Amino acid sequence: MTILESLNYSGILIGFATFMTIGIFHPIVIKAEYYFGRKSAWAFLINGLLFILLSLITDNANLSILFGVIAFSSLWGIHEVHQQHERVRKGWFPMNPKRKHDYE
Known about the structure:
The protein is mainly α. It has helices spanning 10-36, 41-57, 61-89. The radius of gyration is 18 Å and the shape is elongated.
């Protein structure tokens, strides 16, 4: 057995998956707030709860961890939707002209 075969890659893979999940959620939050406003926070809540459940019932440890990362990224998305609303209100991000009344 070589040294490369004896290494445990789980931590690196989970770290990379966490990094990618956070990176993916950033534009999702921006688009969700743009098209649906603050009410999109409900979708992040439901998604977070669903992935918590998946994390709890999955036998595979790495998959359970990945589901947990997605779950808490979703739950953090609730906060970020409200923060994004404020960033749009301040003019830092573009406003959806169809929802202009939400920012007044």
